[in-house]
């Protein structure tokens, strides 16, 4: 309000609540379009606040989600005076008919001012949608679309969500649970060229619509449908069906399907079920484990659950691990335009894939947001891979010098020294611990436990007779030490293989 009145404070004539204005009728600023007798009156809504503007806003149900929702609530008319090209339609009686909406702003301001209806015109900064690809200003616009009534299965999806193990656990009733709670019907169609065509044909004469469920059905209903029909545009658009209602001609509607529906049907489509592979489908469904970025709570995670609930009334997956964003070293989201991206090939060429993998696994849990620092990859390389390489090099060098055959004449574990039995006990504790962590999807705790073991192995080497005295000592203890070190190295490499599969 201060921006409207400037330095001179406004005079308060009367104070009352916004609800006191409910149902008051007002005269519209412009008289374009057809309206019911009662179309311009005050309604109340909880999305309007007093922190921005006056708390009183104009409602245009055809140009915004909140506006549309409140229009549905109060049965307000949906007046569309802008075409799909972003220009005012010819029904507009004023001079800006045919103009692009933003280009018409000066004319609208001049018109209002000339009629004495403008209090003040000023520019101000506010949030506005832009295309994420080309930064073009966007216009919210109501379009006819095809929907899946997912609101009808909201309760079932809530129930199936409780059957899923989420990592981290708070996603279940937090981010994903909240998304399900606010679930709306799924806008299925897209006005695009690329994508899976919506398999709906409409009659040119009577308007009858039919959804085709298979290639066989398409061939039975169509005329001259080739055996190798390409089910994408433009080829599928050439298929004409005969209307069973009026014997008229049916053409496919122009829409394609939301790509999230495609990916959401992965549980079934990957097996070409129900047309074949019934046993394979039943063995693999539901999936034991899926993983994706945290933003897929409203993408793939949701589409999988929705389609699975619609088709089978079951969840599509048992365990779901959510990955947080990896930020640049400056703490910002990586972006080519900011110049803060990291070339992975440089790291793979210089430090290696294993070093990068170990850094990613041990740095923080996958569901924790983190920054990516190349120095951290170097540190990870030294911490585990470097230690492992040093121990291995020591073993190979001295075992070859002394011609030790660790697979021959190896003393039983019970006859080995206390320090040998201790490191083997520590090794088996590690095996159990890593298995437990992995089975519980604690992918950071497991490799960190391996790192801790490597520190213990270094301590063991400082007291094991063979590793201390090298070639100076012979006998069963030395043979046992080498056999122990061999067993430990082979086992550690096996345990670490899921994290560093390339071996250096």
Automatic annotation (TrEMBL):
Signal peptide: none
InterPro entries named among the record's database cross-references: aa-tRNA-synth_Ia, Anticodon_Ile_ABEc, Ile-tRNA-ligase, Ile-tRNA-ligase_type2, M/V/L/I-tRNA-synth_anticd-bd, Rossmann-like_a/b/a_fold, tRNAsynth_Ia_anticodon-bd, Val/Leu/Ile-tRNA-synth_edit
Gene3D superfamilies linked: HUPs, Isoleucyl-tRNA Synthetase, Domain 1
Enzyme class, first EC level, given as a word: ligase
EC number: 6.1.1.5
Pfam families recorded: Anticodon_1 (PF08264), tRNA-synt_1 (PF00133)
Protein name (record): isoleucine--tRNA ligase
Source organism per UniProt: Geodia barretti
